[in-house]
Every structure is written in structure tokens, then in C-alpha cells.
Amino acid sequence: IIELINISKIYKVGTQFVHALAGVSLDIYKNDYLAIMGSSGSGKSTMMNIVGCLDSPSSGSYLLNTYDVSGLDDDKLSSIRNKEIGFIFQTFNLLPRYNALENVAVPLIYAGKNKIEINLLATEALMQVGLGDRMDHKPNELSGGQRQRVAIARALVNSPSLILADEPTGNLDSKTSEEIMRLLDDLHKAGNTIVVVTHENDIAKHAHRIVKLKDGLIESDRNNN
Amino acid sequence: IIELINISKIYKVGTQFVHALAGVSLDIYKNDYLAIMGSSGSGKSTMMNIVGCLDSPSSGSYLLNTYDVSGLDDDKLSSIRNKEIGFIFQTFNLLPRYNALENVAVPLIYAGKNKIEINLLATEALMQVGLGDRMDHKPNELSGGQRQRVAIARALVNSPSLILADEPTGNLDSKTSEEIMRLLDDLHKAGNTIVVVTHENDIAKHAHRIVKLKDGLIESDRNNN
Ligand SMILES: Nc1ncnc2c1ncn2[C@@H]1O[C@H](COP(=O)(O)OP(=O)(O)OP(=O)(O)O)[C@@H](O)[C@H]1O
Ligand SMILES: Nc1ncnc2c1ncn2[C@@H]1O[C@H](COP(=O)(O)OP(=O)(O)OP(=O)(O)O)[C@@H](O)[C@H]1O
Ligand SMILES: [Mg+2]
Ligand SMILES: [Mg+2]
To answer: Residue A86 Cα, ligand 2 centroid: separation in angstroms?
Structure first.
């Protein structure tokens, strides 16, 4: 369902060019469970942003369900992002002036759900990540790992079929990390497609396939057995 | 050099009271190397903020080098924070409009160093964390792990004698994490006092003493052998 064809992403900083991605090709099929690994700065978040329709490549093509994403207008892209793709950001990206419940409710508002549904689904999502007693806390009234879990709840609340998780357990202790990974494992068993960026082998071993990035290129792409 | 005596920290959210710390007592000696562990929300960052003079307790006393910190005026506290304590924040807290070099230079400016010294020390600090080729990038032009390393470089640039690191490797791959831990190990051998909050046993094993927090209380405090 996802085809990256020779994707490059080049940034210009001052007079220097940074090749964040230098020609990446990758096929992701329905119900795949991928782990993306690679050292700091190797291009993982850049690749996730392109797959999640949050950024466009400098060159190459991205086909999503056979449609060339670069050919889609903003409204169509926006609708895909909100309904089909759940994105857990590496740096959470929560709205500072809203509490946990309000933050998790945002995708439901965009999906046009009514107030009762919004309240029910957002509350459920927060309880699922163990934050039932923190729903009225704003981000600065939450611990690092609690903010991460609000970001996770928000990404899953619309039941998206493609889940992109950029280091979803970086701020979590091992017990909480296992709970989150069990959540993702269950979503995979339910037929969804999961892509997790991680630095930790313990997290990567949940996936069925491991893709390694190095200096903006794919170094290896193997099944996990 | 650090005595926490029955420290409590209570937050009020709406009508609820949250006991982030519920009576914590801890002695830290010169040249100690502590790891602080505990599940998400157990009070680790709250404790670090109090030790780092960034926050004050609701009750209890904090003696730093035998002085009651609550008795010190703002200028004195500020001077201790800037010169004696290096703080690596869990969420980095970089200035978005300044590049990596400028961010790392901030403590040197406050320490009254001249321009040539500032440039030299800030550049050295960034090279030490492997970011010699990213010095002119702003935070939004850096990967998650690169931002974390800028925060680390900034904390160490004034050669503080007390280093408080709140999850310094949460966004780093294993190779880069090891480089950072070697840095901290060397600083410890040089006579400094190191306190690291971490969720990972691989990181905690570098420390000589492990303190475990649970629900705002110290659950255990043991030597690491
Ligand atoms: N400003 C605040 N207002 C209300 N509650 C707060 C505030 N800051 C922290 N808390 C609560 O205090 C508790 C401890 O927070 P703290 O940030 O110290 O946890 P932590 O051990 O660092 O967790 P993590 O491993 O997730 O970073 C959490 O339950 C959090 O919700
Ligand atoms: N807006 C930008 N402008 C310039 N360079 C950028 C920009 N965004 C990212 N980069 C650079 O592109 C490279 C890849 O960044 P990316 O965020 O994809 O890395 P990553 O693999 O996610 O790293 P980490 O594990 O540290 O999160 C890095 O070297 C980074 O400095
Ligand atoms: Mg990243
Ligand atoms: Mg914390």
C-alpha cells in the first residue's frame, strides 16, 4: 500500500546541502509490521514524515494505495492524514494550552464526530494508555512519559489503518513500554499496518520486518525471525 | 553535598491534589555516581528539578553544601545553577531561534567569558557530542537525537561539578548512547558528581548507586555491584 520510489530529501542550511534521505526505495504492504532502525541523524524521522504525508520529497515518488501523493490536492492529503494515518511524533507535539483529553479529542473533531462520541472515545483512549487520572492535566503538568502517552492516545483515537510511531517508548519505563507495545501488537493482529521507528532491539523484536537506515540510505531490509 | 530531608511536592489541578513527591530523603556525596529509576510519573523529574534549584519543595528542606537552599536569595541560587550545576532536560528546552552553537554558548555568556573563549568552548563541546557538522543548524533543523546532544553539550560546557541528566539517551541509538555514557563516566573519574535519571538498565549499570522511586517515595537505595 506504500511505495517509496527513489525518495530524496535535501535541506539547504546556509551554503551547505544536507542529504537527509539520499535515494530510498521501500514497499510496505497491508498488515505489515515494520521496525525502522538506524543511528541518530540517519533519516528515520524524515522518512516517516514523508510516509505520513507531513512533508514532501525533494525528488522521487510516493505512491499511497497506487495514487501518486504529489498529485493529490491539499484537502485530499489532509483527509488521508486525519482519517487513515495515526502519527506518534518523536517530540509529541501536544497543544500546550489544552489538557490531555482536549489534545486527544482533536482528530475526532476533524473527523466530524459528535460531542458524546468525542468524549467517550477520547476518554477510552487515555484510559488505554493508563492516564485515566490525568485527563485534565495540561502538557506542562505531565511527566515526559505521560506526554508521550497522550501523543500515543491521540494517534490511535480515530482507529487509523496505518500507524506511524516515531520512537513511541523513548521516555517510558520498561513496564509501560511493554503495555504500549502490546497495544500496537493487538492493533496489528486486528489487521492494521504498523511502522515503528526505534533504537531499541527489545522494541524492534515485536516487528515482523526490520529496515535499517544509514546516512539517508537503506542499509538492509530483512524479515525478523 | 546534597541533603534532601523529607521533601514533598504537591500540585493542585482543579480540585485534585497530586503528590508528585511524598516525603523523599536522600544524601548525595561528592563524586557519587547515582542512577535514579522508577516508572513513568513516579517523581524523577520533579526530584531533579528540586536538586537542580529549578523548583522548590512544598515542604521539607534541601541543603546544598550545608546551606539551606530555601534561605538563599535569587541571585545566589541563579549563580549556583549557572556555574555549579549542569542540567540536561528530559525535553531538551533549546531556544528555537538560535542555532546549536548559540544554544550551547548561553551558559558561557552568563559565566562572563569573552567572545573567543565562548566560541572555542562551545565548538569543542559540540564536537565532543559528534555535532561538529551541525553547529549552524537550529533545533527544527536537527533530528531528535541531535537536539538531545545539543542539550548535553550545553549542560557540560561550563565544566560544572554537579551534573544532573534527565534521561540523556532516550532519543539516541545504542552507539551514540555509549559515547554519551563514556563522556559521563570520564567526568565522574575526573572527580565530578553525576546523577542520571534513566529507564534503561544498560545506562543505570554505569552508576555506582541506584535509587528507585515509586509513587513519589524512595523504594530502594542500593550500591551497584
Ligand atoms: N505542574 C504539574 N502539575 C500537576 N501535576 C504534575 C505537574 N508536574 C508533574 N506532575 C505530576 O507529578 C507526577 C510526577 O511527575 P514527574 O515528571 O516527576 O515524573 P517522572 O518520574 O519524571 O516521569 P517520566 O518517567 O514519565 O518522565 C506525575 O504523575 C505528573 O502527572
Ligand atoms: N529542516 C532541516 N534542515 C536541515 N537539516 C535537517 C532538517 N531536518 C533534519 N535535518 C538533518 O537531516 C538528518 C536526518 O534527520 P532525521 O530527523 O530524519 O534523523 P533521525 O534518524 O530521525 O535521527 P534521531 O534518531 O536522532 O531522531 C539529520 O542529520 C538532520 O540534521
Ligand atoms: Mg528522529
Ligand atoms: Mg521525567
So the answer is: 21
Q: Which of B164, B214, B210 is nearest to B35 (CA)?
A: B210
Question: B20: nearest CA in chain A?
Answer: A143
Given the C-alpha cell 528542606, which residue does it identify? B61
A171/B176 CB distance under 8 A = no
Contact between A99 and A154 under an 8 Å Cβ cutoff? The reply is no
Distance, in Å, from the CA atom of B118 to the CA atom of A179, rounded to the nearest integer, reads 46
Minimal-distance CA residue to ligand 2 atom 19: A41
pLDDT digits (tens, 9 = 90+) for A34-86: 999 999 999 999 999 999 999 999 999 999 988 899 878 888 888 888 889 99
Chain A residues whose beta carbon lies within 8 Å of the beta carbon of residue B175: 39
- The number of helices, as runs of H, and strands, as runs of E, in chain A is 7, 10
User: Could you report the per-residue pLDDT of B73-118, keeping only the tens digit for each?
Assistant: 888 888 888 889 999 999 999 999 999 999 999 999 988 999 999 9
Closest CA to A3 of A74, A98, A67: A67
Give helix A144-156 / helix A174-189 axis angle, nearest 10°. 10
Rounded Cα distance, B153 and B222, in Å: 30
Nearest chain A CA: its distance from B130 CA (Å): 10
Distance from the alpha carbon of residue B211 to the mean position of ligand 1, in angstroms = 17
CA A51/CA A57 separation, integer angstroms: 10
CB contact under 8 A, A176 and B40: yes
* Pocket flag, ligand 1, residue B125 (CB < 6 Å): no
